[in-house]
Amino acid sequence: MKRSSKGSKRKPLPEEVQCPACGGCSFKHKTTVFPFPLPTGKVIDVAGVHVQECLDCHELTPTYEGRMKLARCLETFLSLPG
């Protein structure tokens, strides 16, 4: 069965347009540990966050799914007693 080349090129998502640090437009998607600053001034490492890594400056930027996970972690952290 021959595959059609139609639709094989993936269109970039709006969040992939430019790196916020250097303006690059080449990214690698990965799942990694992401340092997340808390409102209290502490930084926690959240595992399994979906990020895109800029291939020019290696800046890690969370994707939509990654940002949702960080929001859930923040909500959980703020609900802890103490």
Description:
With 82 residues, this protein is an alpha+beta fold. The chain has one domain (19-79): Ubiquitin-like (UB roll), CATH 3.10.20.860. The protein has one helix at 64-79, and strands at 27-37, 43-54, 60-62. A three-stranded antiparallel β-sheet has the order 1-2-3. A hairpin with a 5-residue loop joins strand 1 and strand 2. The longest helix has 16 residues, at 64-79.
Q: Work out the helicity level.
A: 10-25%
Are there runs of 5+ residues with pLDDT below 50, and where? none
Derived structural class: alpha+beta
From the N-terminal CA to the C-terminal CA, the straight-line distance is 62 Å
Question: What's the helix and strand layout?
Answer:
Elements (H helix, E strand, L loop, with lengths): L26 E11 L5 E12 L5 E3 L1 H16 L3
Antiparallel strand pairs: 1-2, 2-3
Give short descriptive properties of this protein.
single chain; 82 residues; alpha+beta; Ubiquitin-like (UB roll); three-stranded antiparallel sheet; 3 strands; 20% helix; 32% strand; elongated
